[in-house]
Amino acid sequence: MKAAVISFPGSNCDEDLVWALNTVCGQDVDLVPASATALDGYDLVLLPGGFSYGDYLRSGAIAKFAPIMPAVRRFAAAGGYVIGICNGFQILTEAGLLPGALQANTSLKFICEPEPLTVANAATAFSSAYSDGQSLTLPIAHGEGNYYADAATLAALEANHQVVFRYAANPNGSLNDIAGIVNARGNVLGMMPHPERAVEALLGGTDGLGVFQSLIDATKGAADAKRA
Amino acid sequence: MQKELSPEAIKAEQPYLTWGLTTAEYDRYAELLGRLPNFTEIGLASGMWSEHCAYKFSKPVLKTFWTHNDRVLMGPGEGAGVIDIGEGKAVVFKAESHNHPSAVEPYEGAATGVGGIIRDIFSIGAKPIAVLDALAFGDPHDPHQKQLIDGVVAGIGDYGNAIGIPNLGGEVRFAESYTKNPLVNAMCVGVMDKAKIQKGKAAGVGNALIYVGAKTGRDGINGASFASAEFSETEAADRSAVQVGDPFMEKLVMDACLEVTRDYQDQLVGMQDMGAAGLVSSTVEMAGKANSGMVLDLDLIPQREPNMTPFEIMLSESQERMMLCVQSGSEDAILAVFRRYDLDAVVVGHVEEGHRYRLLHHGQVVCDVPVSALTSDAPVYHQESRRPQRLAHPAPHWQPRLKNGLTTLKTLLAEPNVAAKRCIYRRYDAQVQTNTVLAPGADAGVVRVRGTHRALAMTADSNGRYLYLDPEIGGAITVAEAARNLVATGAEPLGITDCLNYGDPTKPEMFYELAESAKGIVAATRALNTPVISGNVSLYNETSGVAIYPTPMIGMVGLIEDLTAISTADFKEAGDLIYLIGATAADFDGSLLQAVTTGGVAGTLRPLDLAREKADQDLVLAAIRAHLTTAAHDVADGGLLVALAEMSFGRGIGATVEVAMPQSWLFAESQGRFVLTVAPENQAAFEQLAGAAATLIGTTGGAQLAVTAQDGQVAGDVAELTKINAEGLACLLK
């Protein structure tokens, strides 16, 4: 599997994703600057956490205009797997690749905590290594992770089983305890918790490995299908 | 804007008096110049001769510090100090105070404190891997203090979170003494290849000076001299002396500068951040260190506002700016790196023959002074020192009259100094960079060092209560306490950085506190083999003549050579044996119990036995490294019972303990103590190692913390105690 981690100016979890995918999971990974305009040859595109362009406006509101974003849209439209984590999730909603928006936490404060989650849908390319209802603990670290969507959108998300992760003890006010969702097609995921921060026992847990393992399996499947 | 007086008018009207220079200093400067200084030149001296830049009052004290052992690669004098940690790597660290700006504008003051200390670290060529902060406020029940705390915490969080450097903890203290003068001390730790240490120097005639980063504006003008004066009640007028931070800009500057140090090591002559006294201090210090001359063209300095005067350009403390000296001919390649990050980067001057510091503005020479007049020839004062009255006639030893041990325990657990600080540190990203082994809340923060088999432990500690009673012993205790925090995680202390927070040094009593505490710090650093490799001084922490407790903040870094021998404080399982290391006595003077009960501290401290301290710390370290312990915690604020309670919180495991001491001694703050737990199968091996130094006091297990003393028992429900501790501060700050 060959993955591209997009590095926006102000991204600060980009190297952590490279570490998780490459050093820990043994995959090929490139750090691709947001000034690039093509994503040819990749099986997976990751939008990392951080504060893209400083996020002085709305989180992700500037990043959606980055030169790389048309390529990300094309990649997603072609069915490629895209995952946005934390700021990456915010960018995906701003870019319209995922529905809804991420507002300020109800406390109006940044929260960094290990957070208990449940797997709401293990039948996605991003969560197949887990089982439905499985409890996980993944770190969160955000000031704007309060997921909002209008009632119709929420109903559609629920009806289509697009909610992949839910908070067990909602820390930020997210509607329906949403911590992560996929698009209707199932190839674009956004999540506020940081799976890349939970891939080594030394650092407190390995519950995040499942996300990467799922994607490794999914891209392997896709590559095999292409060959056949 | 300042009206530019003529040299003669400056002499007559003495505007420099309001910038912190004395008439005698003005005369000294004029003598060094051989003529009357012009407006720009005297402005530069007011910044460079401030305590913040010149250490004119503290230098004689700082000279007494022990600064080198065989592991120190670079001691004080550069942006930060450097210590060898093996496997080709070095750790770089420094702490800096931002007390004055934070008092006036808490959010930006604290944020720019973090930003400034981060620049000090990457100016050496090190990648910042952690920030810590030591904060001190007044009573958190006071609405004004709450607002102050919220602003400071938000500022630290927003800056560190955005730039992507994990916050590994530190401390938050509360005492009446900090009400008008809060302490905001930020520390940053970096790691680098030890072969790539950069220095802040500008050498080689014709080599270029490159300005990088944010444009220069009218913010923080002459902040260094602002920080070197006492507050009056009319402090609001000083708001323009506080800077505004931009962590996004800093991240770009940091990443670009680290790329230059990596890819252009041979072409990069020196690098320094623009901190206190901005452009003038960075450039003239670089010239001074290399014994060079220098010329700068101020018209080339990127400016945010029109019509800035040379005085304003040179003394602005706009943030996120760096100065590089690069070899002639390499300018274009290095400028290209910065352009890729969309940063302003401009060649603004050159190293010259001779030893003059020259500034050009609109084609005129607006400054032409010897480099040394602004650096090595700054005055140094040997202040008069006088023991304060309170120390000459101390109160007799204070003894608590305990009514109910459990009630006292609950009071202390909820007291803001002991209460859990989670409501504060959860606002800081502690895990970005994915190296954090122990996050805030542990005895010390621990990060693994990539590319090695090692980890670094770090802490930031102070205890002004003790120093108020005895600056010398208190100074030693602060160093020893910091070391205990590291040792409890399994780390060998390597060295320290300090922020020396005191009152007005021109008052003999204040200078006494500074000088005496330095004696204690020196003795402890020698005994514990932890040289001082960097630091800063924050004097004038007074408002309307009332000073803070003398409060040296000790930032300490330690080395863990075995990633499997990292220890935490929580009881791991029922049935482990509990040992106490160190002796307990009726040490209540300066204790938290005394502060809580009487509203202040009084009395005298028992001298710290540094030899015993070192031996016991070595013992704890040896036991952890031999995998003989299951938990380790130092005994600090609130004494043994509080320490035991804290160990029970993590996993909700209680303990049954019996001690041969009166109940009140459970709250004594005798120094040099640790609590360890040992699995039963390791009892023999541990006791053989520890000998008489460890006393078996009990066993872990159950839902109760039950401690039997000679005159009664204290028994509390662990879940209830946990809740009290968790909510003590959180409820106040809601």
Structure overview:
- The complex is a heterodimer of chains A (228) and B (734).
- With 228 residues, chain A is α/β, with parallel strands linked by helices.
- Chain A has a single domain, classed as Rossmann fold (3-Layer(aba) Sandwich).
- Chain A contains five helices and eleven strands; from the N terminus they run βαββαβαββββαβββα.
- Chain A has a nine-stranded mixed beta sheet with strand order 2-1-3-4-11-10-9-6-7, with helices on both faces. Chain A has a two-stranded antiparallel sheet with strand order 5-8.
- The radius of gyration of chain A is 16 Å and the shape is globular.
- By secondary structure, chain B is α+β, with helices and mostly antiparallel strands.
- Among the domains of chain B are: 16-49 and 198-227 and 238-378, Phosphoribosyl-aminoimidazole Synthetase, Chain A, domain 2 (Alpha-Beta Complex), CATH 3.90.650; 415-419 and 567-734, Phosphoribosyl-aminoimidazole Synthetase, Chain A, domain 2 (Alpha-Beta Complex), CATH 3.90.650.
- Helix content of chain B is 35%, strand content 24%.
- Chain B has 25 helices and 28 strands.
- In chain B, the strands form five sheets. In chain B, strands 8-10-7-11-9-12-13 form a seven-stranded mixed beta sheet. In chain B, strands 23-25-22-26-24-27-28 form a seven-stranded mixed beta sheet, with helices on both faces.
- In chain B, strand 4, helix 8 (143-163) and strand 5 form a beta-alpha-beta unit.
- The radius of gyration of chain B is 26 Å and the shape is globular.
H/I helix tally of chain B: 25
Helix content of chain A: 10-25%
The CATH architecture of chain A can be given as 3-Layer(aba) Sandwich
What spatial order of strands do you see in the largest sheet of chain A? Answer: 2-1-3-4-11-10-9-6-7
So what's the overall shape of chain A? globular
Percent helix of chain B, as a range, is: 25-40%
Question: How many beta-strand elements of chain B?
Answer: 28
What is the CATH homologous superfamily assignment of chain A?
Class I glutamine amidotransferase (GATase) domain
The CATH topology name of chain A reads Rossmann fold
Work out the radius of gyration of chain A: 16 Å
Q: Extract low-pLDDT stretches of chain A.
A: none
Oligomer: heterodimer
Unreliable runs of chain B, pLDDT <50, ≥5 residues? 233-239
> What's the N-to-C terminus distance of chain A?
17 Å
The largest interface is: A-B, 31 and 31 residues
Q: How large is the radius of gyration of chain B?
A: 26 Å
Structure classification of chain A: alpha/beta
Count of separate DSSP helical elements of chain A: 5
SSE pattern of chain A? EHEEHEHEEEEHEEEH
Instruction: Spell out the CATH superfamily of the domain at 16-49 and 198-227 and 238-378 in chain B.
Output: PurM-like C-terminal domain
